[in-house]
Amino acid sequence: MHLADHILRHFPPPAYLDAPTVGVDLSDRSVKWLKFERGKHGLEIGSWGEQDIPEGFIEDGIVKRPNELQKQLVSLRAMIGEPEVSVALPEEQAYIVSMELPSMRRRDLREGILLSLEQYVPLSPQEVIFDYEIIRSPSRDFDGYQISVAAFPDVVARSYFNIFTAAGFIPQSFETESQALARALMPAQDIDATMILDIGRIRTGIAITCGQTVWFSSSVSIGGAAVTSHLAEALSISREVAESRKRERGFERAVSTQDVDLPSVQPATLSDIFSPLRDEVLKHMEYWNEHGRSRVRLTREHEGEITAIVLVGGEANLPGLTDYMAYSTGLPVRLGEPWVNALSFDDVIPEIVRGEDLRFVSAIGLALRPSRDRGTYK
Can you tell me the distance from the alpha carbon of 116 to that of 99, in angstroms, rounded to the nearest whole number? Predict the structure, then answer.
């Protein structure tokens, strides 16, 4: 079997052996993991943690120093204690596309997708690996398939697969960060379009979802490290002090139509640094509302415009950021609820404190991926 046929395919165990996997969210500068365990009230948090990745090991999602990264993953394997993992592949290297195919036998869908994929992805069939989800099947009022596809360069997927297996892991699945975020945050049957902003240390991921289906994803090089550097330079203070002030004070006061000045520790410093992110969000909203939403055909009519924005990631808690984004976009903006599809607070209180859990949303979604194939993936 070709490795590309192997990497993203499930190898489901018998039902009696089905157990939660460990979600591993690996990015350019950190690796986070989380494992659920089954308790008397359902899922409970088993273990979790985070390690920094030295600069230069991974750049823009490409592994640059595989031997050093493998050594770090070996130590991670010892800390986790479990070999089976679900891993997020880098969003910077992913292509999320939607397509419609005519009615055919399900066993022929993979070949049909592969023949159509070159229209959307600048890679040859020999260079691409993909996973797909069936959104709609042939029915009385829909003659064909509507499919969401996540594709990666084969060489990228192969590099991550080889490094994880060499480090002693048994990868159960690879998928995009945005797919993991949607699984953790969104109700499965929600048909409203939502934008998820995953604001991290180095970059921000932008995803547009309907329920747990990702229709669009992108990544911009704007993150918390740039904000800290900007503050340190603007105020002539150390990075450590700038980071502390950023966390404590943020934008300092809420935004309203009567209060459009956005002071932080010094007038407009945070609004200046976040204005490129605001501009990217507005650009993606405009594209989706004018072009992207026409591709979404679900089981009942809806306008398809983005109705809300959800913030997650290590920088999402910045004071005043939700108000700033709400004022800038004119949409409701809220912090994500990482446990909504995992735990019932009536029975279990997460040990990870509120706010810190926003950094683990991708790992949570990865850990929630079912090991048994439900028929939506190849």
Answer: 8
Query: Each residue of 195-244: pLDDT tens digit?
Result: 999 998 889 999 999 889 898 898 888 888 888 887 788 778 888 888 88
Q: Is residue 230 in some structural domain?
A: yes
State how far the Cα of 30 lies from the Cα of 49, in Å rounded to an integer: 11
Print burial letters for 185-224: b (CB count within 10 Å at least 16), e (below 16): bbeeeeebbbbbbbbbbbbbbbbbbbbbbbbbbbbbebbb
Range of the domain at 71: 1-92+152-186+341-378
- Assign 1 to helix, strand or coil: coil
Report the amino acid identity of residue 6. Answer: H
Residues 377 and 350 in one domain: yes
Does residue 245 sit in the same domain as residue 370? no
Mean pLDDT of 80-92: 90
Are the C-beta atoms of 188 and 211 separated by less than 8 Å? Answer: yes
SS3 at position 21: coil
Distance CA 216, CA 1 (A): 30
Strands of the sheet with 145-153, listed across from one edge:
95-101, 145-153, 128-136
CB 178 within 8 Å of CB 219: no
Q: How confident is the model at residue 6 (pLDDT cuts 50, 70, 90)?
A: very low
Based on the fold, state whether residues 362 and 235 are members of the same structural domain: no
**Cβ pair 286, 208 in contact under 8 A:** no
Task: Give pLDDT tens digits for 98-133.
Answer: 888 999 999 999 999 999 998 889 999 889 999 888
